[in-house]
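B., you asked whether I could sanity-check this one before it goes into the benchmark set. Here's the sequence:
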Amino acid sequence: MTPPPLDLVVAALRAPTYADVRRRLFRQLLESLVYEDAIRVTTTDDGASVVDGTDEQGHPVQYVFTARRRYGFDRVSLGPEPVRRVADGESAEADSLIRFLGEVRQALTADPECLARFCRELEATLVKDALAQYVRIERGDVLAEHDYDTLEGTVTDGHRYHPAYKSRIGFDLEDNLTYGPEFRHPIRPLWIAAHRGISRVATATELAEDAFVAAQLGEVTLRDFRNRIAAAGGVPQDYTLLPVHPWQWREQIAPTWADQLRRQEVILLGEDPHAFAAQQSIRTLSCSDMPERPYLKLALSIVNTSTSRVLAPHTVGNAPVVSDWLRGVVARDAFLRDECRLVVLGEVMGTAVDPAPAADLVRSDTYGTLACIWRESLHPFLERDERAVPFTGLTARELDGTPLIDPWVRAQGVRTWLRHLVRASVLPLLHLLFRHGIALESHAQNMVLVHRDGVPQRVALKDFHDGVRFSRTHLAEPEACPVLAAPPSHHVNANSFLETDDLDQVADFLLDAFFFINIGELGLFLADAYDLDEQEFWTVVRDQIRAYQKRFPDLDARFELFDVFKPAIEVEKLTTRRLLPDTEVRVHAVANPLAEPATRRQPDSVGGR
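And here's what the prediction gave me:
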Protein backbone atom coordinates (compact mmCIF):
# COMPACT_ATOMS: atom_id res chain seq x y z
CA MET A 1 0.00 0.00 0.00
CA THR A 2 1.44 3.36 -1.01
CA PRO A 3 1.58 5.86 1.89
CA PRO A 4 -0.28 9.09 1.24
CA PRO A 5 2.07 11.82 0.02
CA LEU A 6 2.74 14.17 2.90
CA ASP A 7 2.57 17.15 0.59
CA LEU A 8 -1.00 16.19 -0.39
CA VAL A 9 -2.15 16.17 3.24
CA VAL A 10 -0.38 19.41 4.07
CA ALA A 11 -1.62 21.09 0.88
CA ALA A 12 -5.21 20.10 1.67
CA LEU A 13 -4.94 21.48 5.21
CA ARG A 14 -3.54 24.78 3.92
CA ALA A 15 -5.89 25.18 0.95
CA PRO A 16 -8.95 27.48 0.97
CA THR A 17 -11.14 24.39 0.86
CA TYR A 18 -10.14 23.65 4.48
CA ALA A 19 -11.85 26.82 5.70
CA ASP A 20 -14.84 26.06 3.48
CA VAL A 21 -15.23 22.63 5.06
CA ARG A 22 -14.77 24.02 8.58
CA ARG A 23 -17.52 26.59 7.95
CA ARG A 24 -19.81 23.88 6.62
CA LEU A 25 -19.15 21.81 9.74
CA PHE A 26 -19.86 24.74 12.03
CA ARG A 27 -23.06 25.42 10.13
CA GLN A 28 -24.33 21.84 10.26
CA LEU A 29 -23.30 21.43 13.89
CA LEU A 30 -25.16 24.53 15.07
CA GLU A 31 -28.13 23.93 12.82
CA SER A 32 -28.62 20.45 14.23
CA LEU A 33 -27.98 21.46 17.86
CA VAL A 34 -30.50 24.28 17.67
CA TYR A 35 -32.99 22.18 15.73
CA GLU A 36 -32.80 19.33 18.23
CA ASP A 37 -33.06 21.72 21.20
CA ALA A 38 -29.69 20.39 22.41
CA ILE A 39 -28.12 23.79 23.15
CA ARG A 40 -29.26 26.94 24.98
CA VAL A 41 -29.60 29.85 22.55
CA THR A 42 -30.74 33.38 23.21
CA THR A 43 -31.79 35.99 20.68
CA THR A 44 -30.64 39.60 20.76
CA ASP A 45 -32.81 42.59 19.96
CA ASP A 46 -31.32 42.76 16.47
CA GLY A 47 -32.18 39.10 15.78
CA ALA A 48 -28.76 37.51 16.24
CA SER A 49 -28.53 34.11 17.95
CA VAL A 50 -26.08 33.79 20.83
CA VAL A 51 -24.62 30.84 22.73
CA ASP A 52 -22.88 31.78 25.98
CA GLY A 53 -19.77 29.98 27.15
CA THR A 54 -16.62 30.24 29.23
CA ASP A 55 -13.00 30.00 28.13
CA GLU A 56 -10.29 28.05 29.97
CA GLN A 57 -9.51 31.02 32.21
CA GLY A 58 -13.15 31.34 33.22
CA HIS A 59 -13.78 34.46 31.16
CA PRO A 60 -17.14 34.81 29.34
CA VAL A 61 -17.28 33.95 25.66
CA GLN A 62 -20.11 34.26 23.18
CA TYR A 63 -20.69 32.58 19.86
CA VAL A 64 -22.85 34.70 17.56
CA PHE A 65 -24.64 33.74 14.35
CA THR A 66 -27.86 34.32 12.47
CA ALA A 67 -30.44 31.59 12.00
CA ARG A 68 -33.94 31.16 10.66
CA ARG A 69 -36.64 28.55 10.54
CA ARG A 70 -37.35 26.91 7.21
CA TYR A 71 -40.76 25.71 6.10
CA GLY A 72 -39.73 22.08 5.65
CA PHE A 73 -39.94 20.23 8.97
CA ASP A 74 -39.11 23.41 10.94
CA ARG A 75 -35.49 22.99 9.85
CA VAL A 76 -32.99 25.58 11.05
CA SER A 77 -30.62 27.30 8.61
CA LEU A 78 -27.74 29.53 9.58
CA GLY A 79 -27.03 32.67 7.62
CA PRO A 80 -24.28 32.76 5.00
CA GLU A 81 -21.80 34.63 7.20
CA PRO A 82 -19.34 32.64 9.38
CA VAL A 83 -20.01 32.02 13.07
CA ARG A 84 -18.32 34.70 15.22
CA ARG A 85 -16.54 34.22 18.55
CA VAL A 86 -16.70 37.22 20.87
CA ALA A 87 -14.19 37.37 23.74
CA ASP A 88 -12.50 40.23 25.60
CA GLY A 89 -14.50 42.70 23.55
CA GLU A 90 -13.13 41.39 20.24
CA SER A 91 -15.06 39.54 17.55
CA ALA A 92 -13.42 37.09 15.13
CA GLU A 93 -14.49 34.16 13.02
CA ALA A 94 -14.86 31.01 15.11
CA ASP A 95 -12.14 28.75 13.78
CA SER A 96 -12.20 25.74 16.13
CA LEU A 97 -15.11 23.36 16.47
CA ILE A 98 -13.50 21.66 19.44
CA ARG A 99 -12.87 24.89 21.31
CA PHE A 100 -16.49 25.84 20.65
CA LEU A 101 -17.82 22.61 22.16
CA GLY A 102 -15.42 22.90 25.10
CA GLU A 103 -16.39 26.49 25.85
CA VAL A 104 -20.16 26.01 25.57
CA ARG A 105 -20.37 22.58 27.16
CA GLN A 106 -22.54 23.90 30.00
CA ALA A 107 -25.11 24.99 27.41
CA LEU A 108 -25.19 21.54 25.77
CA THR A 109 -27.32 18.51 26.49
CA ALA A 110 -24.44 16.05 26.36
CA ASP A 111 -22.79 13.24 28.27
CA PRO A 112 -19.09 14.17 28.87
CA GLU A 113 -17.74 10.89 27.51
CA CYS A 114 -20.01 11.03 24.44
CA LEU A 115 -19.05 14.68 23.89
CA ALA A 116 -15.35 13.80 23.81
CA ARG A 117 -16.05 11.05 21.28
CA PHE A 118 -18.13 13.44 19.20
CA CYS A 119 -15.26 15.95 19.16
CA ARG A 120 -13.00 13.30 17.67
CA GLU A 121 -15.63 12.52 15.03
CA LEU A 122 -15.84 16.18 14.04
CA GLU A 123 -12.05 16.50 13.84
CA ALA A 124 -11.88 13.41 11.63
CA THR A 125 -14.67 14.74 9.39
CA LEU A 126 -12.90 18.07 8.98
CA VAL A 127 -9.61 16.56 7.84
CA LYS A 128 -11.11 13.82 5.66
CA ASP A 129 -13.52 16.10 3.88
CA ALA A 130 -10.82 18.74 3.40
CA LEU A 131 -8.75 16.07 1.64
CA ALA A 132 -11.72 15.01 -0.49
CA GLN A 133 -12.57 18.55 -1.58
CA TYR A 134 -8.94 19.39 -2.32
CA VAL A 135 -8.47 16.29 -4.47
CA ARG A 136 -11.77 16.97 -6.26
CA ILE A 137 -10.52 20.42 -7.28
CA GLU A 138 -7.08 19.11 -8.28
CA ARG A 139 -8.76 16.51 -10.49
CA GLY A 140 -11.11 19.09 -11.99
CA ASP A 141 -14.15 16.82 -11.64
CA VAL A 142 -17.10 17.55 -13.91
CA LEU A 143 -20.04 15.67 -12.44
CA ALA A 144 -22.22 16.00 -15.53
CA GLU A 145 -19.69 13.95 -17.53
CA HIS A 146 -19.74 10.96 -15.19
CA ASP A 147 -21.78 7.78 -15.38
CA TYR A 148 -23.70 6.39 -12.41
CA ASP A 149 -20.89 4.26 -10.98
CA THR A 150 -18.44 7.16 -11.06
CA LEU A 151 -20.96 9.55 -9.50
CA GLU A 152 -21.21 7.15 -6.55
CA GLY A 153 -17.67 8.24 -5.70
CA THR A 154 -17.47 11.77 -7.03
CA VAL A 155 -20.61 13.17 -5.39
CA THR A 156 -18.59 13.96 -2.29
CA ASP A 157 -20.99 16.01 -0.18
CA GLY A 158 -21.99 13.35 2.33
CA HIS A 159 -24.89 13.78 4.75
CA ARG A 160 -26.23 17.34 4.58
CA TYR A 161 -27.70 17.31 8.09
CA HIS A 162 -25.42 15.16 10.26
CA PRO A 163 -22.29 17.15 11.23
CA ALA A 164 -20.06 14.06 11.47
CA TYR A 165 -20.85 13.21 7.86
CA LYS A 166 -17.37 11.93 6.98
CA SER A 167 -15.89 10.82 10.29
CA ARG A 168 -15.04 7.24 9.24
CA ILE A 169 -13.68 6.46 12.69
CA GLY A 170 -11.29 3.56 12.22
CA PHE A 171 -9.81 4.83 8.96
CA ASP A 172 -6.56 6.76 9.37
CA LEU A 173 -5.59 9.18 6.59
CA GLU A 174 -3.84 6.47 4.62
CA ASP A 175 -6.89 4.20 4.83
CA ASN A 176 -9.16 7.08 3.87
CA LEU A 177 -7.13 7.86 0.75
CA THR A 178 -6.93 4.19 -0.16
CA TYR A 179 -10.53 3.15 0.49
CA GLY A 180 -12.59 6.36 0.50
CA PRO A 181 -14.97 6.53 -2.46
CA GLU A 182 -13.90 10.06 -3.41
CA PHE A 183 -10.41 8.92 -4.34
CA ARG A 184 -11.54 6.19 -6.75
CA HIS A 185 -8.71 3.80 -6.07
CA PRO A 186 -9.34 0.20 -7.19
CA ILE A 187 -10.08 -2.24 -4.39
CA ARG A 188 -9.54 -5.97 -4.58
CA PRO A 189 -11.77 -7.78 -2.05
CA LEU A 190 -10.17 -10.73 -0.33
CA TRP A 191 -12.02 -14.04 -0.26
CA ILE A 192 -12.10 -16.36 2.69
CA ALA A 193 -13.51 -19.81 3.31
CA ALA A 194 -15.61 -20.09 6.46
CA HIS A 195 -16.65 -23.43 7.90
CA ARG A 196 -20.37 -23.97 7.64
CA GLY A 197 -20.50 -24.84 11.32
CA ILE A 198 -19.96 -21.16 12.20
CA SER A 199 -21.68 -19.60 9.17
CA ARG A 200 -25.19 -18.72 8.07
CA VAL A 201 -26.07 -18.49 4.38
CA ALA A 202 -29.36 -17.18 3.05
CA THR A 203 -30.29 -17.01 -0.62
CA ALA A 204 -33.12 -15.62 -2.70
CA THR A 205 -35.64 -18.08 -4.05
CA GLU A 206 -34.30 -20.24 -6.88
CA LEU A 207 -30.72 -19.05 -6.35
CA ALA A 208 -28.21 -21.85 -5.81
CA GLU A 209 -25.29 -20.83 -3.61
CA ASP A 210 -22.58 -22.82 -5.38
CA ALA A 211 -23.58 -21.74 -8.88
CA PHE A 212 -23.88 -18.12 -7.77
CA VAL A 213 -20.42 -18.04 -6.18
CA ALA A 214 -18.94 -19.77 -9.22
CA ALA A 215 -20.42 -17.06 -11.45
CA GLN A 216 -18.82 -14.38 -9.29
CA LEU A 217 -15.33 -15.87 -9.25
CA GLY A 218 -15.04 -17.72 -12.53
CA GLU A 219 -13.99 -21.32 -12.99
CA VAL A 220 -10.24 -20.78 -12.71
CA THR A 221 -10.34 -18.75 -9.48
CA LEU A 222 -12.94 -21.04 -7.89
CA ARG A 223 -10.80 -24.11 -8.63
CA ASP A 224 -7.76 -22.38 -7.17
CA PHE A 225 -9.67 -21.45 -4.00
CA ARG A 226 -10.96 -24.99 -3.53
CA ASN A 227 -7.44 -26.34 -3.94
CA ARG A 228 -6.27 -23.98 -1.21
CA ILE A 229 -8.96 -25.26 1.14
CA ALA A 230 -7.88 -28.83 0.45
CA ALA A 231 -4.20 -27.90 0.90
CA ALA A 232 -5.09 -26.51 4.33
CA GLY A 233 -6.61 -29.87 5.27
CA GLY A 234 -10.24 -28.91 4.73
CA VAL A 235 -13.03 -30.38 2.65
CA PRO A 236 -14.23 -27.71 0.19
CA GLN A 237 -17.88 -28.73 0.53
CA ASP A 238 -17.69 -28.02 4.27
CA TYR A 239 -16.96 -24.34 3.66
CA THR A 240 -18.82 -21.35 2.31
CA LEU A 241 -16.92 -18.67 0.41
CA LEU A 242 -17.36 -14.94 0.92
CA PRO A 243 -15.42 -11.72 0.28
CA VAL A 244 -14.03 -9.45 2.98
CA HIS A 245 -12.88 -5.86 2.68
CA PRO A 246 -9.04 -5.67 2.69
CA TRP A 247 -9.13 -3.14 5.56
CA GLN A 248 -11.46 -5.39 7.55
CA TRP A 249 -9.14 -8.35 7.08
CA ARG A 250 -6.11 -6.38 8.21
CA GLU A 251 -7.66 -4.53 11.14
CA GLN A 252 -10.37 -6.87 12.42
CA ILE A 253 -10.27 -10.42 11.13
CA ALA A 254 -6.55 -11.21 11.20
CA PRO A 255 -5.95 -9.91 14.75
CA THR A 256 -9.22 -10.89 16.49
CA TRP A 257 -10.23 -14.15 14.80
CA ALA A 258 -7.06 -15.94 15.85
CA ASP A 259 -8.81 -19.04 17.20
CA GLN A 260 -10.84 -19.56 14.05
CA LEU A 261 -7.79 -19.01 11.85
CA ARG A 262 -5.68 -21.39 13.91
CA ARG A 263 -8.37 -24.11 13.78
CA GLN A 264 -8.83 -23.56 10.01
CA GLU A 265 -12.46 -22.61 10.55
CA VAL A 266 -11.56 -19.51 8.57
CA ILE A 267 -9.08 -19.78 5.69
CA LEU A 268 -7.69 -16.89 3.67
CA LEU A 269 -7.93 -17.75 -0.04
CA GLY A 270 -6.82 -14.74 -2.08
CA GLU A 271 -8.00 -11.72 -4.04
CA ASP A 272 -11.08 -11.38 -6.19
CA PRO A 273 -10.18 -11.64 -9.90
CA HIS A 274 -11.73 -8.22 -10.57
CA ALA A 275 -11.23 -4.65 -9.38
CA PHE A 276 -13.98 -2.86 -7.44
CA ALA A 277 -14.69 0.74 -6.46
CA ALA A 278 -16.23 2.02 -3.23
CA GLN A 279 -19.70 3.52 -3.46
CA GLN A 280 -20.71 6.51 -1.33
CA SER A 281 -21.69 4.20 1.53
CA ILE A 282 -17.99 3.18 1.71
CA ARG A 283 -18.62 -0.47 2.61
CA THR A 284 -20.51 -1.26 -0.63
CA LEU A 285 -18.30 -2.00 -3.64
CA SER A 286 -19.20 -2.06 -7.32
CA CYS A 287 -17.25 -4.11 -9.84
CA SER A 288 -15.34 -1.83 -12.18
CA ASP A 289 -14.32 -4.58 -14.61
CA MET A 290 -17.78 -6.19 -14.84
CA PRO A 291 -20.45 -3.62 -13.86
CA GLU A 292 -23.20 -6.26 -14.14
CA ARG A 293 -21.75 -8.22 -11.22
CA PRO A 294 -23.69 -7.79 -7.99
CA TYR A 295 -22.56 -5.11 -5.58
CA LEU A 296 -20.79 -6.32 -2.45
CA LYS A 297 -21.98 -4.93 0.85
CA LEU A 298 -19.20 -5.86 3.26
CA ALA A 299 -18.96 -5.60 7.02
CA LEU A 300 -16.64 -2.74 7.95
CA SER A 301 -15.75 -1.99 11.57
CA ILE A 302 -15.77 1.78 11.22
CA VAL A 303 -18.24 4.36 12.52
CA ASN A 304 -19.62 6.94 10.10
CA THR A 305 -22.32 9.45 11.04
CA SER A 306 -24.29 7.71 13.80
CA THR A 307 -23.70 4.13 12.88
CA SER A 308 -21.23 1.30 13.11
CA ARG A 309 -20.89 -0.23 9.66
CA VAL A 310 -20.79 -3.89 10.64
CA LEU A 311 -23.52 -6.26 9.45
CA ALA A 312 -25.55 -7.92 12.19
CA PRO A 313 -26.04 -11.62 11.31
CA HIS A 314 -29.83 -11.55 11.71
CA THR A 315 -30.09 -8.71 9.18
CA VAL A 316 -27.82 -10.55 6.74
CA GLY A 317 -30.08 -13.57 6.94
CA ASN A 318 -33.18 -11.44 6.48
CA ALA A 319 -31.82 -9.62 3.43
CA PRO A 320 -32.71 -12.14 0.67
CA VAL A 321 -36.01 -13.00 2.37
CA VAL A 322 -37.10 -9.36 2.52
CA SER A 323 -35.94 -8.80 -1.08
CA ASP A 324 -37.94 -11.78 -2.33
CA TRP A 325 -40.99 -10.45 -0.50
CA LEU A 326 -40.67 -6.92 -1.87
CA ARG A 327 -40.05 -8.08 -5.42
CA GLY A 328 -43.15 -10.27 -5.17
CA VAL A 329 -45.21 -7.33 -3.93
CA VAL A 330 -44.09 -5.19 -6.88
CA ALA A 331 -44.62 -8.00 -9.40
CA ARG A 332 -48.24 -8.48 -8.27
CA ASP A 333 -49.08 -4.75 -8.27
CA ALA A 334 -49.89 -3.29 -11.69
CA PHE A 335 -49.29 0.33 -10.59
CA LEU A 336 -45.81 -0.40 -9.26
CA ARG A 337 -44.90 -2.89 -11.97
CA ASP A 338 -46.25 -1.26 -15.14
CA GLU A 339 -46.73 2.43 -14.41
CA CYS A 340 -43.98 3.19 -11.90
CA ARG A 341 -41.70 0.46 -13.31
CA LEU A 342 -40.16 0.36 -9.86
CA VAL A 343 -36.76 -1.29 -9.59
CA VAL A 344 -36.03 -3.31 -6.46
CA LEU A 345 -32.31 -4.06 -6.34
CA GLY A 346 -32.60 -7.39 -4.63
CA GLU A 347 -30.20 -8.52 -1.94
CA VAL A 348 -29.95 -11.97 -3.41
CA MET A 349 -27.57 -13.68 -0.99
CA GLY A 350 -26.25 -13.01 2.47
CA THR A 351 -23.52 -14.79 4.39
CA ALA A 352 -22.57 -14.11 7.99
CA VAL A 353 -19.81 -15.85 9.92
CA ASP A 354 -20.96 -15.89 13.53
CA PRO A 355 -18.96 -18.09 15.91
CA ALA A 356 -19.91 -18.29 19.56
CA PRO A 357 -17.62 -15.93 21.52
CA ALA A 358 -15.26 -17.28 24.14
CA ALA A 359 -17.04 -14.92 26.56
CA ASP A 360 -19.66 -12.18 26.28
CA LEU A 361 -16.91 -9.70 27.14
CA VAL A 362 -15.47 -10.06 23.64
CA ARG A 363 -18.65 -10.69 21.65
CA SER A 364 -18.25 -7.40 19.76
CA ASP A 365 -14.89 -8.57 18.37
CA THR A 366 -16.64 -11.00 16.02
CA TYR A 367 -20.35 -10.04 16.05
CA GLY A 368 -21.24 -8.70 12.64
CA THR A 369 -17.62 -8.19 11.59
CA LEU A 370 -17.38 -10.91 8.91
CA ALA A 371 -20.35 -10.83 6.54
CA CYS A 372 -21.40 -9.98 3.01
CA ILE A 373 -24.68 -9.12 1.28
CA TRP A 374 -24.76 -9.44 -2.51
CA ARG A 375 -27.03 -6.82 -4.09
CA GLU A 376 -28.14 -6.81 -7.71
CA SER A 377 -26.37 -4.35 -9.98
CA LEU A 378 -28.43 -1.50 -11.42
CA HIS A 379 -27.02 -1.90 -14.94
CA PRO A 380 -29.12 -4.85 -16.17
CA PHE A 381 -32.28 -2.91 -15.29
CA LEU A 382 -31.50 0.19 -17.36
CA GLU A 383 -33.00 0.56 -20.82
CA ARG A 384 -30.83 1.74 -23.69
CA ASP A 385 -31.75 5.43 -23.44
CA GLU A 386 -31.88 5.60 -19.64
CA ARG A 387 -29.21 6.96 -17.33
CA ALA A 388 -29.01 6.98 -13.56
CA VAL A 389 -27.85 9.34 -10.85
CA PRO A 390 -27.62 8.79 -7.09
CA PHE A 391 -30.35 10.77 -5.35
CA THR A 392 -27.60 12.59 -3.47
CA GLY A 393 -26.54 13.97 -6.84
CA LEU A 394 -29.73 16.00 -7.11
CA THR A 395 -28.36 18.45 -4.53
CA ALA A 396 -24.73 18.32 -5.73
CA ARG A 397 -22.91 21.22 -7.37
CA GLU A 398 -20.11 21.42 -9.88
CA LEU A 399 -16.85 23.08 -8.86
CA ASP A 400 -18.11 26.45 -10.04
CA GLY A 401 -21.27 26.13 -7.94
CA THR A 402 -23.61 25.17 -10.77
CA PRO A 403 -26.08 22.45 -9.69
CA LEU A 404 -25.62 19.08 -11.38
CA ILE A 405 -29.31 19.19 -12.26
CA ASP A 406 -29.10 22.68 -13.79
CA PRO A 407 -29.36 21.65 -17.48
CA TRP A 408 -32.45 19.58 -16.66
CA VAL A 409 -34.12 22.30 -14.61
CA ARG A 410 -33.37 24.97 -17.23
CA ALA A 411 -34.76 22.81 -20.03
CA GLN A 412 -37.95 21.75 -18.26
CA GLY A 413 -38.57 24.49 -15.72
CA VAL A 414 -38.14 23.82 -12.02
CA ARG A 415 -41.82 23.13 -11.33
CA THR A 416 -42.28 20.76 -14.27
CA TRP A 417 -39.09 18.91 -13.38
CA LEU A 418 -40.21 18.67 -9.76
CA ARG A 419 -43.60 17.23 -10.71
CA HIS A 420 -41.87 14.55 -12.80
CA LEU A 421 -39.57 13.79 -9.90
CA VAL A 422 -42.39 13.47 -7.38
CA ARG A 423 -44.32 11.11 -9.63
CA ALA A 424 -41.20 9.00 -10.20
CA SER A 425 -39.97 8.83 -6.59
CA VAL A 426 -42.65 9.76 -4.06
CA LEU A 427 -45.70 7.98 -5.44
CA PRO A 428 -44.28 4.43 -5.58
CA LEU A 429 -43.06 4.65 -1.99
CA LEU A 430 -46.40 5.98 -0.80
CA HIS A 431 -48.22 3.27 -2.74
CA LEU A 432 -46.12 0.66 -0.93
CA LEU A 433 -47.16 2.28 2.35
CA PHE A 434 -50.86 2.88 1.58
CA ARG A 435 -51.82 -0.24 -0.33
CA HIS A 436 -49.35 -2.70 1.14
CA GLY A 437 -48.50 -1.31 4.61
CA ILE A 438 -44.76 -1.35 3.95
CA ALA A 439 -42.52 1.63 4.77
CA LEU A 440 -39.01 1.84 3.35
CA GLU A 441 -36.05 3.78 4.75
CA SER A 442 -35.34 5.44 1.42
CA HIS A 443 -33.01 8.22 2.45
CA ALA A 444 -30.95 9.67 -0.37
CA GLN A 445 -28.24 7.00 -0.24
CA ASN A 446 -30.83 4.26 -0.70
CA MET A 447 -32.46 5.60 -3.86
CA VAL A 448 -31.29 6.02 -7.45
CA LEU A 449 -33.06 8.25 -9.97
CA VAL A 450 -33.41 6.84 -13.48
CA HIS A 451 -33.92 9.54 -16.13
CA ARG A 452 -34.01 10.23 -19.86
CA ASP A 453 -32.09 13.38 -20.70
CA GLY A 454 -32.77 14.67 -17.20
CA VAL A 455 -36.50 13.91 -17.22
CA PRO A 456 -37.20 11.70 -14.15
CA GLN A 457 -38.63 8.33 -15.19
CA ARG A 458 -38.48 5.98 -12.22
CA VAL A 459 -36.39 5.02 -9.22
CA ALA A 460 -34.35 2.06 -8.08
CA LEU A 461 -34.52 1.18 -4.39
CA LYS A 462 -31.91 -0.61 -2.33
CA ASP A 463 -30.72 -1.55 1.16
CA PHE A 464 -33.57 -3.58 2.63
CA HIS A 465 -31.84 -5.82 5.20
CA ASP A 466 -32.73 -3.40 8.01
CA GLY A 467 -34.48 -0.64 6.03
CA VAL A 468 -38.10 -1.85 6.12
CA ARG A 469 -40.82 -1.33 8.70
CA PHE A 470 -44.35 -2.72 8.88
CA SER A 471 -47.14 -3.96 11.12
CA ARG A 472 -47.91 -7.53 10.13
CA THR A 473 -51.60 -7.23 11.05
CA HIS A 474 -51.96 -4.20 8.75
CA LEU A 475 -50.30 -5.66 5.68
CA ALA A 476 -52.45 -6.01 2.60
CA GLU A 477 -51.11 -9.55 2.12
CA PRO A 478 -50.03 -10.76 5.56
CA GLU A 479 -49.86 -14.32 4.31
CA ALA A 480 -47.13 -13.31 1.83
CA CYS A 481 -44.93 -11.76 4.52
CA PRO A 482 -42.11 -14.11 5.52
CA VAL A 483 -41.08 -14.94 9.05
CA LEU A 484 -38.04 -12.80 9.81
CA ALA A 485 -35.24 -13.22 12.32
CA ALA A 486 -35.54 -10.86 15.28
CA PRO A 487 -32.57 -9.01 16.80
CA PRO A 488 -30.82 -11.08 19.48
CA SER A 489 -30.88 -9.86 23.06
CA HIS A 490 -27.30 -8.58 22.86
CA HIS A 491 -28.03 -6.43 19.78
CA VAL A 492 -28.02 -2.94 21.29
CA ASN A 493 -29.27 -0.71 18.45
CA ALA A 494 -32.67 0.52 19.62
CA ASN A 495 -33.61 1.47 16.04
CA SER A 496 -32.95 -1.96 14.58
CA PHE A 497 -36.37 -3.55 14.18
CA LEU A 498 -38.60 -4.30 11.21
CA GLU A 499 -41.94 -5.18 12.80
CA THR A 500 -44.04 -3.04 15.12
CA ASP A 501 -47.65 -2.73 16.25
CA ASP A 502 -47.35 1.06 16.34
CA LEU A 503 -48.65 2.41 13.03
CA ASP A 504 -47.15 5.84 13.73
CA GLN A 505 -43.74 4.19 13.75
CA VAL A 506 -44.50 2.70 10.35
CA ALA A 507 -45.60 5.96 8.72
CA ASP A 508 -42.94 8.04 10.48
CA PHE A 509 -40.24 5.65 9.28
CA LEU A 510 -41.00 6.79 5.74
CA LEU A 511 -41.69 10.40 6.65
CA ASP A 512 -38.42 10.69 8.61
CA ALA A 513 -35.99 8.87 6.32
CA PHE A 514 -37.49 9.65 2.92
CA PHE A 515 -39.29 12.97 3.28
CA PHE A 516 -37.15 14.61 5.97
CA ILE A 517 -33.70 13.53 4.80
CA ASN A 518 -34.32 12.98 1.09
CA ILE A 519 -37.14 15.09 -0.34
CA GLY A 520 -36.71 17.68 2.42
CA GLU A 521 -33.11 18.37 1.44
CA LEU A 522 -34.20 18.79 -2.16
CA GLY A 523 -36.79 21.36 -1.07
CA LEU A 524 -34.14 23.40 0.73
CA PHE A 525 -31.80 23.10 -2.25
CA LEU A 526 -34.33 24.23 -4.85
CA ALA A 527 -35.25 27.20 -2.66
CA ASP A 528 -31.62 28.27 -2.34
CA ALA A 529 -30.54 27.50 -5.92
CA TYR A 530 -33.67 28.42 -7.90
CA ASP A 531 -35.74 30.61 -5.55
CA LEU A 532 -38.54 28.06 -5.52
CA ASP A 533 -40.55 28.99 -2.44
CA GLU A 534 -40.44 26.14 0.07
CA GLN A 535 -44.16 26.28 0.70
CA GLU A 536 -44.76 26.03 -3.05
CA PHE A 537 -42.36 23.07 -3.21
CA TRP A 538 -44.38 21.20 -0.60
CA THR A 539 -47.64 22.24 -2.28
CA VAL A 540 -46.42 20.56 -5.47
CA VAL A 541 -45.57 17.40 -3.50
CA ARG A 542 -48.90 17.48 -1.64
CA ASP A 543 -50.92 18.06 -4.83
CA GLN A 544 -49.29 15.08 -6.53
CA ILE A 545 -50.12 12.90 -3.53
CA ARG A 546 -53.73 14.12 -3.48
CA ALA A 547 -54.07 13.42 -7.21
CA TYR A 548 -52.72 9.92 -6.63
CA GLN A 549 -55.21 9.35 -3.80
CA LYS A 550 -58.13 10.37 -6.02
CA ARG A 551 -57.12 7.60 -8.43
CA PHE A 552 -57.44 4.97 -5.70
CA PRO A 553 -60.68 5.65 -3.78
CA ASP A 554 -60.71 2.04 -2.62
CA LEU A 555 -57.73 2.93 -0.40
CA ASP A 556 -59.47 5.74 1.52
CA ALA A 557 -59.38 3.77 4.77
CA ARG A 558 -55.68 3.08 4.27
CA PHE A 559 -54.98 6.76 3.67
CA GLU A 560 -56.46 7.47 7.10
CA LEU A 561 -54.61 4.56 8.65
CA PHE A 562 -51.26 5.82 7.40
CA ASP A 563 -51.82 9.56 7.62
CA VAL A 564 -48.95 11.35 5.88
CA PHE A 565 -50.74 14.70 6.18
CA LYS A 566 -50.85 14.79 9.99
CA PRO A 567 -49.80 18.14 11.51
CA ALA A 568 -46.62 16.85 13.18
CA ILE A 569 -44.28 13.92 12.84
CA GLU A 570 -41.41 12.54 14.87
CA VAL A 571 -37.92 12.67 13.38
CA GLU A 572 -34.73 11.27 14.80
CA LYS A 573 -32.29 13.51 16.65
CA LEU A 574 -29.19 12.45 14.76
CA THR A 575 -26.72 14.74 16.55
CA THR A 576 -28.22 14.16 20.00
CA ARG A 577 -27.72 10.47 19.32
CA ARG A 578 -23.96 11.14 19.30
CA LEU A 579 -24.08 13.31 22.43
CA LEU A 580 -25.94 10.86 24.68
CA PRO A 581 -25.63 7.09 25.27
CA ASP A 582 -27.37 5.03 22.59
CA THR A 583 -29.84 3.46 25.01
CA GLU A 584 -33.13 4.67 23.53
CA VAL A 585 -34.71 6.05 20.41
CA ARG A 586 -34.27 9.83 20.47
CA VAL A 587 -36.84 11.74 18.43
CA HIS A 588 -38.66 15.06 18.50
CA ALA A 589 -41.95 16.25 17.06
CA VAL A 590 -41.71 18.76 14.22
CA ALA A 591 -44.16 20.35 11.80
CA ASN A 592 -45.06 18.18 8.84
CA PRO A 593 -44.73 20.21 5.61
CA LEU A 594 -47.15 17.80 3.90
CA ALA A 595 -49.94 18.93 6.24
CA GLU A 596 -52.44 21.44 4.98
CA PRO A 597 -51.18 24.89 6.06
CA ALA A 598 -54.26 25.47 8.23
CA THR A 599 -53.57 22.33 10.29
CA ARG A 600 -49.77 22.52 10.33
CA ARG A 601 -48.09 22.60 13.73
CA GLN A 602 -46.55 26.02 14.34
CA PRO A 603 -42.78 25.95 14.96
CA ASP A 604 -41.00 27.51 17.90
CA SER A 605 -38.79 30.50 17.28
CA VAL A 606 -35.04 30.05 16.98
CA GLY A 607 -33.45 30.72 20.35
CA GLY A 608 -35.09 32.23 23.38
CA ARG A 609 -34.53 29.34 25.75
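One thing to flag: The mean pLDDT is 94. Otherwise nothing jumped out at me.
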